[in-house]
Each structure stands twice: as C-alpha cells, then as structure tokens.
Amino acid sequence: METTFVILKPGTVQRGLIGEVINRFERKGLQLVGMKLQQLTPKILTEHYSHLASKSFFPAILASMMASPVVLCCWRGVDAVRVVRSLCGVTNSRDALPGTIRGDYGMSVQENVVHASDSVETAIEEVKRFFKPEEIFEYSPLNQRFVYSSDELSKKD
Ligand code: UDP
Ligand code: MG
C-alpha cells in the first residue's frame, strides 16, 4: 500500500471546506493514517516547493500558504498517490474537471484548495518532511475487505 501526503491549504481552512475535502478522500475508500493542524513556515515551504523557487510567483505562494494554519494529512491505499492526484484535479482549478476537488471548490491556480504528492518518491519525502514516525498510524480498517478484492490487498506496492 502507498501512503500519500495532502495539505488542505489556508483558503480551504478559511472557507470552511475542511470537512467537504476530507469527505472526498474518506468516501473514496482511502484510509486516514495521519492528520494535524499546523502553521507552515518559510523554511519548510522552501523545501517543499523547491521546484518553484526560481519562479516570480514564489513569494506569493509562500504568503498564501502561511495565511492561516493548514490541515496536513496522510492517506493510505492501493495506488494512493495517483488516486489522490486524480481526485484533486489539475493545478489550475478553472481547468480542473467537475467532480474533482479543485474543479468543484476552486477558481484559481494559486488558491487551488489542496496540495497532493505527485509521485511515490515525492510522497515518501513529503510524509517524512511533515510527520514524525509516531504521528503516522498503522491500523486495520474493518471495511478493508469490502473496499478491495483479496488479490488487490495482497499486492506489494
Ligand atoms: N502555482 C501558482 N502558479 C503557477 C503554478 C503553481 O501559484 O503558475 C502554485 C499552486 O498553488 C500550485 C503550487 O504552486 O498548487 C505548486 O505547483 P505545482 O506545479 O507543483 O502544482 P500541483 O502539484 O500543486 O498541482
Ligand atoms: Mg506539485
């Protein structure tokens, strides 16, 4: 099973959309394995968004991501990284399809509701960056055998 990392951005917290967004992941069948409210800092954001550091909009992203506390969460499931990216929709919320989180709750590129890890490697780094090992929980969801077939559950990924 993969574990992927999601941020509910400050706009999502401010607009009272935390429950709506969490609900999307829960009802899909993903398992919540870590969650906390945190005020992000320039240091952690500069690491997290290092691929955008040279962009002119970088200071705007930092300000936006520090505008209020955010919800940090980790979701586990078979192919969780790509499943969560596809639930989120494309970066520009105006282009994101209806039915996706950004498509349903956003109108902006910058203010696009959520962050989600973009690859298995990135997910491993991001979970480690934002969560201590003891903040990630291993537990067996009782509904697991109704969410997946037994061969999917035994798949090693
Ligand atoms: N972003 C922006 N302007 C851009 C591209 C990105 O404000 O032209 C912001 C946006 O909030 C996005 C974040 O920077 O979610 C990270 O960009 P990335 O390309 O990694 O997109 P994502 O993986 O979030 O879809
Ligand atoms: Mg990204």
Description of the structure:
The chain has 157 residues and is α+β, with helices and mostly antiparallel strands. The chain has one domain (2-154): Nucleoside diphosphate kinase-like domain (Alpha-Beta Plaits), CATH 3.30.70.141. It has helices spanning 10-14, 18-28, 42-48, 58-65, 80-88, 101-105, 120-130, 144-147, 150-154; strands spanning 2-8, 31-38, 70-77, 114-116. The chain has a four-stranded antiparallel beta sheet with strand order 2-3-1-4. The longest helix is centred in the first third of the chain and has 11 residues, at 18-28. It is globular, with a radius of gyration of 15 Å. It starts with a strand and ends with a helix.
Would you kindly provide a brief summary of this structure?
By secondary structure, the protein is of the alpha+beta class. The chain contains nine helices and four strands.
What distinguishing features does this structure have?
single chain, 157 residues, alpha+beta, binds uridine-5'-diphosphate, binds magnesium ion
Rg (C-alpha, Å): 15 Å
Helix amount, in percent? 40-55%
Helical stretch tally: 9
How is the main sheet built?
A: 4 strands, antiparallel
Q: Tell me what the CATH architecture is.
A: 2-Layer Sandwich
Taking pLDDT < 50 over at least 5 consecutive residues as the criterion, the unreliable ranges are: none
Bound molecules: uridine-5'-diphosphate, magnesium ion
CATH fold name, please? Alpha-Beta Plaits
Coarse morphology = globular
Structural class: alpha+beta
Number of strands: 4
CATH homologous superfamily caption: Nucleoside diphosphate kinase-like domain
The figure for the number of domains is: 1
Across the major sheet, the strand order is: 2-3-1-4
